Amino acid sequence: MRTRPLGRTGIQVSPYCLGTMMFGGAGNPDHDGCVRIIHRALDAGINVIDTADVYAGSESEEIVGRALRGRRDDVVLATKVNGRMGEDPNRAGSSRRWIVAGVEHSLRRLRTDHIDLYQIHHPDPRTDVEETLAALTDLMAGAGTVLGDDLLDRIDEIVPPGADVGPLDVAYDPPAVTTAALRRRAISERAAA
């Protein structure tokens, strides 16, 4: 199967992605059958598997983790955080607290030490976007992952520094939104690297 770039990340992905929202009690409760579907997709050349913490009460992530045993390095693994995962009001959303806890839970369920694409499933109007971005940035730094300058330039094309990105506290201009230099090296420094 042909591949294409995932944005400017340097990662090559198949044009198809296997979504696993219906794997588990919410759709297909047959775990062995779900594992067979994942294996067939991988054998056919699909290299992107997408899941989320809330799919079937996290059962989907457990199935994906089981299916990828011995094949993890062949897959671009995507999962999400944000959905309610219990009665505790802090077990949902895009707060630093929940993102950090959520990624730890997902890593355990997926039986892996890394997630290739960690996504915020839905906007969280209760959490400042700066808090969410800082938490994601810290996760990448802790994982030894750095956003490339090309990707950050593309983000600036889509959301220019200083652009209105939503309901932020009007008395505070987040430095990472208003000052591109705080997010990456200057163009003059890139050529030297």
TrEMBL record:
- Transmembrane ranges, per UniProt, are none
- Domain named NADP-dependent oxidoreductase is located at 17-140
Keywords assigned: Oxidoreductase
Name listed for the protein in its UniProt record: Aldo/keto reductase
